[in-house]
Amino acid sequence: MHQVIESVVDQGSFIEIQPMWALNAIVGLARIGGHSVGIVAQEPAVMAGVIDIDASDKMTRFVRMCDCFNLPLVTFVDSPASYRRRAGTRRYHPTWGQAALRLF
């Protein structure tokens, strides 16, 4: 997915935010045609790109930040479903899983 993003944005302009957290979600800032944009993508190489709690939280926070600064979003979607893992059921809340879906 990083190669796809780099091929779309201006050369060397992509800055990934929180690259070591929720590896199945990619968020960052870039320039396209000299204009600043927010990038939201799913990484199909990690957990097949499914949206889990951490990925949903990461994408939701980033989209809200872009909204505060009136940055347009470019979205790359490749997801089969959402995922609720057993270890996360204690902190799982149904609205967290739906938060990423309601962003758009």
Descriptive report:
The chain is an alpha+beta fold and 104 residues long. The longest helix is centred in the middle third of the chain and has 16 residues, at 53-68. It is built from 3 helices and 4 strands, in the order αβββαβα. The chain is globular and about 35 Å long. The protein has helices spanning 2-8, 53-68, 94-102, and strands spanning 15-17, 25-32, 35-42, 73-76. Strands 1-2-3-4 form a 4-stranded mixed β-sheet.
Keywords:
single chain; alpha+beta; 4 strands
Provide mean pLDDT, rounded.
Answer: 83
SSE pattern: HEEEHEH
Uncertain regions: pLDDT < 50 for 5+ in a row? Answer: none
- Main beta sheet, described? 4 strands, mixed
Q: What is the share of helical residues? A: 25-40%
Rounded to an integer, what's the Rg over CA atoms? Answer: 14 Å
Q: How many β-strand runs?
A: 4
What does the oligomeric state look like here?
A: single chain
- Strands ordered across the widest β-sheet: 1-2-3-4
The rounded distance between the terminal residues' Cα atoms is 20 Å
Q: How would you sum up the global shape?
A: globular
